[in-house]
Amino acid sequence: MKSVTYNDAELYRRLRAEVLGDTRLREEGEMFLSLPPSELELQSRWFAGDFGRDFVTTCGQPVRIVQFGHWNHSAGPDFTDAVVLLGNGEPVRGSIELDTNLRDWEHHGHGENRAYRNVVLHLFIDHHGGGQFFTRTDDHVQVPQVQLDLSTLSARPTGIVPEARSGRCSAPLQEMAASKINELLTSAARFRLKTKGRRLRRIAEIHGESEMLYQAFAEAFGYRRNRLPMTVLAQRLPLSGLRAHPDTGEALLFGLAGFLETRVFEDASDETRSYLRGLWETWWKHRAEFQGIDLGWRFSGSRPVNHPQRRVAALACLVRESQRVFRHLWESAAASFDRKAFVKVLGSLGHTYWDNHYTLTSKQAARPMALVGGTRSKEILANIAYPLVVPHNEAAWDGYCALRGTLENEKSRRAVIRLMGRRPDAAEFTGFVYQQQALLQVYDDFCMDDESDCDDCLFPEQLRTW
Ligand code: SF4
Question: Quick check: 262 pLDDT over 70?
């Protein structure tokens, strides 16, 4: 099936650049999860470096984020211990505050709060109410302001969910030779893999390679519905801190996730009570350090085996085994990447309690369940392993292309129907992960941006010149 002669991302990159312009580098991970995006998501995206690190203040002064600092657990500015470089000055260490509205600084009383005295940068999205507003600390020091541009992340966040029916491009795609479709899909898949790799490397530049992998695994463990809470959990509880205190990690993750509410466990089994007692004995000593936040877990719409509590358990197991898992990945990147061996490593992440429980309130399951099953392993391969390995090890590309995938998620199924709906041999182009990723790339680039029911979309015309 993969008998292509052109295996680079360049063809697809040129096609989308002609239609969309070169400036937009959007992919699934860069789309907003809600519209308007929540402050928590904006903070998470900022901390991941998705907005970039070079900005211009509202006064026209260039500013570079040298260090993004730490996500603050307690009351006070959002990020502490950041380092920023303003113009040609010396790097300045201090805190960063991110508000959706510029005047939130005033509305939330930060200007009279001594805890905000060391803020060196005030980030905001909108300036509702207009007029001039200067950010000042309680000791009357003016704080530079930077307006973050949402279009950096999403060119035109329409919030439209395209219908699940054949689109206008399905006609030219129906007429295209199989070899040409294969070439298109391969190129789009390459493009997507590169984009994912670029995002991961950017996070590694900011937070280091281990934190990048830890955050990326957390995001992957969150599936689609709980990506944000899982990512925020990992961003707020960095791997370095959890590794330094290995006995506390699991309790901190469950505690900060909000899953250690006593009232929930009054009727719990002896086994559950015993497990919880261990978590509680650690958590109660630390919980005062953490300001409670609502991570926005979504409990409905996912199978019991994927309950958020099992996802947090998987993350706790990853923390415990992170050196072994990450070493395997990096060593594989340098040698020949053994996909099956890596999946086996992921499958070995186990837990005496969670191997047999769906939630903290469920009875013991009839059979043991993997914390990281086959579907999750494929997601991790497609979104983390191959985007990182292929740039170092070109031979791994063939392994990626050999990875089969089921159309499990709704978005993939919709992409297939819209683009390949008219081809009787559609199954030939949808059975492998790289093909599904390619179709998702087209869907994200064109369908998600279309408000004309395909009429104004230029993808069909571009296809005729392919
Ligand atoms: S919006 Fe464009 S790419 Fe999407 S189905 Fe319609 S014609 Fe095809």
Answer: no
Q: Which residues contact 23 (CB under 8 A, 6 or more apart)?
A: none
* Chain-centre distance for alpha carbon 78: 20
pLDDT at 342: 93
Last residue of a domain, one of 385, 414, 442: 385
Question: Is 198 part of a structural domain of the chain?
Answer: no
**Would you say residue 22 lies in a domain?**
yes
Is 32's pLDDT higher than 80?
A: no
Do 250 and 358 reside in the same domain of the chain? yes
Which of 358, 385, 412 is where one domain is finished?
Answer: 385
Mean pLDDT of 60-81: 95
pLDDT tens by residue, 395-405: 899 999 999 98
Instruction: Specify the residue with its C-alpha closest to ligand 1, atom 4.
Output: 447
User: What is the DSSP track for 3-18?
Assistant: --S--SSHHHHHHHHH
Structural domain range at position 131: 52-148
- In this predicted structure, the answer to whether residue 132 has a pLDDT above a threshold of 50 is yes
pLDDT above 70: percentage of residues in the chain: 92
Residue 79 pLDDT:
97
- Using CA positions, which residue lies closest to atom 2 of ligand 1? 457
Same domain flag for 233 and 296? yes
Q: Are residues 275 and 316 in the same domain?
A: yes
d(CA 337, CA 347): 17
The beta strands (E) that lie in 201-280 are given as: none
Q: Which residues line ligand 1 (CB under 6 A)?
A: 167-169, 418, 442, 446-447, 450, 454, 457, 459-460
Best residue among 422, 447, 449 to mutate for probing ligand 1's pocket (most ligand atoms within 8 Å of CB) is 447
Ligand 1 centroid vs 15 CA: distance in angstroms? 14
